[in-house]
Please model this.
Amino acid sequence: MPGGATALPGGAATAAAAPRRRNYARRYGWFIVPAGIVVLAVILFPWAFTLFMSAHEWKIGGGHHFVGLDNYRKLFTDERFLSSIARTLYFTALAVILPMVFGVAAALVFARNFPLRGLARTIFILPMMATPVAVALVWTMMFHPQLGVLNWILTQFGIPPSMWIYDAATVIPTLVMVEVWHWTPLVMLIVLGGLASLPIDPYEAAKIDGANAWQSFRHITWPLLLPFIVVALIIRTIDALKAFDTIYVITQGGPGTSSETINIFLYLQGFAYYNMGYASAVVVVFFLLIVSLAALLLWTRNRVKDAA
Amino acid sequence: MMRILEKIGFAIAVLILVSPGALVFLWMLSLALKTELDNTAWPPVFIPDPPVWDNFLSVFARNDFLLYTWNSVVTSFSATGLALLIGVPAGYGIAKMRATRAAMLILIARITPGLSYLIPLFLLFQWLGLTGTLTPIIITHLVITVPIVVWVMIGFFEGLPAELEEAALVDGATIWQAFRHVAFPLARPGITVATILSFIFSWNNFIFAMVLAGRETRTLPVAVNNMLTFEQISWGPLAAAALLVTLPVLLLTLAAQKQIIAGLTAGGVKGG
Model:
């Protein structure tokens, strides 16, 4: 199987294969038509329509008129939007780095053979399979300042109780904790897939040459694993930027606006205040941010590849 | 001596790794099985003694929980079924044609935040008069399920040896017959993986139904979130409802862990 978001299926076709390819396209094109229609309707149409709406003042029930780039101009002077960008980047940085560190460590553990490995691995990935709303609810109950089990645990270690999601200073780190719990398993699985594909020969050669465990990790495992780690990094970055369900269920952007990320801001503009035109402009800017960060990481990946 | 120490250290590492996952779900179970008095006790009561089922009964008594369950079932099955119907042939076509650009489009769907589809589609469904039915929710779930199915199937069909189909083509089969009678049966394991993942991520989805659902068309995640908003204080029924929503997915994960891990390892398939 290909590496999902990573390796694009299909390789470079050679010049000699070109006529055959064109022939193929005619014959196999029909297989793609139904999916193509769906993609057109639910993915491309929304895109085109979003661009169109972003140039309009468009309120539900309030009609609409063309305003050109006004929505974008307003967006970049909107204090609330700008701080939501900063918050999103803060959240993303933490929600990428921590799962990466824990995920790689976990993959190194799960790559070894031990009794009950299958069961342990399944329990480990349960958080990412569970319904986000359901687990967000349980976390909310655990964060209760007076009755929550987390504060009880803290007091057992002699640490003063925390306000968790009810304090502007701790709300983002707290939400990051939930995100780490939720998505570290995905990083682990991708890296584990990489570890499973490592060849055995270099290790044997290294052993004969007298390399110790650290040396063979540093000079064989790490370079071979790096492409997989970068893939996990890209996917995690995209997902952290897009995080919505748990943040919305747990805090709805609060207290005040102190956990209002771009995605929450977007939701409120669109479906709480019904500013559809303004929200569409947010979508465009948000998408460009995601794509440029993903492109930056892809570029890093290619450089890593060239270096290897 | 070193070996034993190493083994103990390793066992502790495994224990540390699995406990965050296990403990949160156990706490959910504990909350669901305790009385309100025990749930708000300080220090917390960990083991329900005796376990009570009242919370589950009250979930069904006070809400249209069965209706919401039905909505979720209809939505997830329809969205998965439709996605298989169009996604399996598409995966085959893309794999055969080596259509990198079509695959790229699937990637863009993976990158785009779910909310961005919702604004235009919300208006479209209003114009079409479809709000208040399950149809818009099923259609938007295709945004999640189609890319998952196509993505898994591309990988699967690319891994199949081409010789068998070519032999069928040489023997005079049409392309459709070669797909239907040769490639399709061979791809069953891939279809299983695609079905499971697509079902789970459709079941778990919150945002599409939250925006599009009316009172009668809520899916389970939306219904549970509404309980949180309106019944902040009663933890028992809340935890019971949360457990009921996520239980099918957890059981499916335990039952099909091999397929799920194979599908996910292949590369960051995730909805939303």
Q: What stands out?
A: The radius of gyration of chain A is 24 Å. Chain A is about 70% helix and 0% strand. The CA atoms of residues 63 and 270 of chain A lie 15 Å apart. The longest helix of chain A spans residues 18-54.
